[in-house]
Structures are given as C-alpha cells and as structure tokens.
Design a protein that fits this description.
Blueprint: H1 2-19, E1 23-28, E2 32-35, E3 45-49, E4 60-64, E5 72-73, E6 80-84, E7 90-92, E8 97-98, E9 103-113, E10 116-127, H2 136-156
Parallel strand pairs: 2-10
Antiparallel strand pairs: 1-3, 3-7, 4-6, 4-9, 5-8, 9-10
Amino acid sequence: MRRVAALALSLLVTLTGAQSQLKIAVLEGDRAVNDIRKRTAREPVVEVRDAADRPVTGASVTFLLPDSGPSGVFPNGSRLVSTTTDENGQAAAIGLRPNTVAGEFQIRVTASYQGQTASATLTQTNVGTPPSRIPGKLIALLALGGGAATGVLIATGGGAPSRGDGQPARPVITPGTPEVGRPR
C-alpha cells in the first residue's frame, strides 16, 4: 500500500510540475508607445512554448486590457480578446486601439493548453492628446451667424462704403480672415 501511495504521490508531483512548464515569450508589443491622436497601437504578439521549449500549436491565449486609466479596446469593442496559437505557437491581439488617456498600462496575457497555464504581462504607453473636435452644429451656427451679420450690413447699408459717386461699393471677400471693406 505504501508503494502505491508513493507512486501516486510521485505522479502527482510530476503532473503538478508539468503545470508550470508552459511558457509565454513576448515577441512584439512590450514597451511599445501608442499614438492617441492617430489611434494607432503596437499589437502584442506572443509565442507559447512547452517544457521542451517547442512551440505549442492550438493553445488558447487571452489578452486583457485595464478597466480604466490608460488602456485601449480591441475591434470587438471589448478589453478582452481570445485567440489560438498558430503552427508556430504564436498569437497576436490584432486591432488594438489606444483610448484617449495618456500614460503607462499593462496588458495581461494568459495561455492554456491541455490543463497547463502560463501568464505574462506586457507594458505599453499611450502618448499624445486626443484631437480636439468642434461639433459640426457649432461650425454651422458660426457660419450662419457670420453670413447673417454680413447680409444685414449690406442690406441696410449700415457702414457700407461708397465709391465716391454716391453709389455703395460692392463688398470684397478675400480668403483668410473674413473682412468686408472697400474694393482694393
């Protein structure tokens, strides 16, 4: 009975040791800098290897971004994307887009294969400022307001210069800063 128990314990130790033999090697994306303004990021790429340092095909890999602060999203709009390693044991988080918060953040990577798991962390940094956006309605209102004011001045003759013969001069509009004045 003791021999069976010792054999079972030895087998358990061997299996437990095998659990930690799966490894993740980061190939791309660690220490990458993402551009907030252009909404471009460096996609993380990892390689999953077994105890004999061979690539593992078909391992499940997840990439997880932070909930808040500097972070990003994947094409599905989520902070989590799952994929499977290819014949070279590689997996990539395709389509990562940074959010608009500048700073450093970590991407957690987890791989699993036949009961074995491994994890790794990549660090990336979002830099820049998001492009300022002037709402289209505001632009339209400003254009309408400026056009209306010009129309009122012309229609009422308010401040319209004359050509010297008593006739009002036609307004001249030049590209650049808008101004209404005498012909030049």
